[in-house]
Amino acid sequence: MPLLQNHIAVITGAGSGIGRAIAKGYASEGARVVLLDMNEQAAASVAGEIRDAGGKAESFLLDVTKREDCVAIARRVADKIGQVSILVNNAGIARRNGMLGAAEAVINDWEDIIAINLTGVFNVTHAFLEPLRAAKGRIVNIGSIQSFVHLKTPSSPAYTASKHGVLGFTKALAAELGKDGVRVNAIGPGFIETPLNEKVRASNPALAKVFVDHTPLGRAGTAEDIVGPAVFLASDLSAYVSGSIVMVDGGYRTV
User: Fold this and answer.
1) For residue 97, is it within any domain?
2) What is the CA radius of gyration of the chain?
3) At residue 203, does pLDDT exceed 90?
4) What is the residue range of 50's domain?
């Protein structure tokens, strides 16, 4: 029997990269997936791919920074699709301007990154909280190696702060929602090749080399490398796992 049979799973940022891979992976394990993304066309395209492969998928436009829109989507999903039992908070952005850059850029980075990467996680989780509690559901938040460290390579303090916040939010929710049977965990990707960092990889191959050279497995990760841990944390295989972060970084943090 597929690991996620009879589950309805909502994935944010599902139009590309890690979110796309998780949505397809969940569908292949029997879940009915709901893809949410600011890029409505991209999410619809992935949903179409899933349906063409025999899976069940719907897609909706969502800006996770807009709290009222998150609430409206949760209601729409409940009315049209059913009770959500899995939520993956994946939507996020990354920028590499340091604190000593131009003031306007630094401030814009802080406001945009925190709004999407951290407040967005709160907004979507809060909107879907009641069906998740009713279903004794599972929440999977996408953190980072920067949930623990600030990289020596160029990276914004806002991104590091946001991913530290995601891990703290994960632990706080796990502690509070455990009595309801809701499990809350995170995944900590390392250097994963996705459209999010495609331009950086193309323009600065030396930066990519720094990551790979520091990684014991000797390669960058792919979005598909995140799927197995995401399925594990959403399935009954992890029935006694909550408040944890599964690192998917090729061993980066061990050296």
Assistant:
1) yes
2) 17
3) no
4) 8-249
